[in-house]
Amino acid sequence: MAHIDAGELLPNEHVQQMAAEGKITQMHRGHRYADEGDTFDIDGTTYEVTDVTERTLGDLTDEDAQREGSENLAAYRDRLARVHDEFEWDDDSDVVRHRFAPADDE
User: Fold this and answer.
1) Other CB atoms within 10 A of residue 20 CB
2) Which residues have C-beta within 8 Å of that of residue 10, sequence separation ≥ 6?
């Protein structure tokens, strides 16, 4: 378990603020950026990575999209196409889901 910079997992300030507001509770990335038990801070709150799972884009659901701040899977796919140059959705593409939550203050 390590304490990582929030930017390692959450790629920009906007995404970090959405996480701080509870609008994002997971992030799929093309590679593993954290391990279960790792922690990071946003605005004085410590978050813990609670789950890291290898998946494919085809595994994603509307619930996954909502946990990443999109209305549904279609909106999520559109967002990925807007923010990534030359992005093409391929159900067989490998991704890594990182789930996180505020750490217990115990």
Assistant:
1) 18
2) 16, 19, 24, 27, 40, 42
Can you name the residues that pair with 39 across neighbouring β-strands? Answer: 3, 48
Backbone angles phi, psi at 54, to 5 degrees: -80, 135
Determine phi and psi for 90, rounding to 5 degrees.
Answer: -135, 115
Biggest CA pair distance of the chain: 45
Check if the beta carbon of residue 50 is closer than 8 Å to that of residue 36.
Answer: yes
- The encoded tokens of residue 62 equal 């509307």
Is the pLDDT at 106 greater than 80? The verdict is: no
Centroid of chain to Cα 6: 11
- Cα separation, 16 vs 32, whole angstroms: 18
What are 95's strand-pairing partners? 55
pLDDT, tens only, 32-82: 999 999 999 999 999 999 999 999 999 999 999 999 999 999 999 999 999
Angstrom distance (rounded) from CA 53 to CA 20: 22
